[in-house]
Design a protein that fits this description.
With 173 residues, this protein is an alpha+beta fold. It has helices at residues 29-44, 129-142, 153-172; strands at 49-51, 61-64, 74-84, 88-93, 103-108, 110-116, 122-128.
Amino acid sequence: MNPPALLNILCYPDPRLHTVAQPVAAVDARIRELIARMFATMHEANGIGLAATQVDVHERLIVIDVSETRDQPMVLINPEIEWASPEKRKGEEGCLSVPGIYDGVERSTAVKVRALDGEGRSRVIEAEGMLAVCIQHEMDHLMGKVFVEYLSPLKRNRIKSKLVKAQREVARV
Ligand code: K1U
Ligand code: ZN
C-alpha cells in the first residue's frame, strides 16, 4: 500500500489559520484517511503535534506524538478541556505554521481533556508536561489562534514581516 499523501501546512500570516473549526460529525473513512495523512505530514515536518486547521481542514481534529521514539500517536477528535490547572508555567514553543520562530508562552501545567479517539471512542486524557502544552497549543489552532498572538504586537509584527518576506522569496524562485 502507498504511504499516506502529505498535506500542505498553512504558513502564518495566512488568514485561514484564524478559522474556527467545526465539530467532526462522524469518525468515518474520510476522517481516518485525514488522520493518516496528518500523522505523515507531522512526522515529515519533525513536529510533535498538528491541528486540522493547519492543513486547511476546519474540523476539530488534532494529532500528537510527543514521545522521543515517535511511536505513541494520539488522536483527539472534538476535544474539550474539562479542567486546566491554575498553576501556569512559561515555556518555549514552536509551530509548524510559523517556521523558525520560537518564543515563550505561559500555559497551564496540567489539563484534563475529553475527546474521541481515532475509533470514535470517548476518552479522558490527563496530561502534564510537554503533552499538556502541546494539547493547549493545538486546541488554540482549532479556535483560530496561533501562538504568536500571545506575544507583544511589536514581536508579532516583526514575525509577520519576516515570514511574508521569506514566502515572497520562495515564490520568486
Ligand atoms: O502545532 C504545531 O505546529 C506543532 C508544534 C507543536 C508544539 C511544539 C512546541 C510547543 C508546543 C507545541 C511543533 O511540533 S513545533 C516543532 C517541534 O517539533 C518542537 C518545537 C519546540 C519544542 C518541541 C518541539
Ligand atoms: Zn502550531
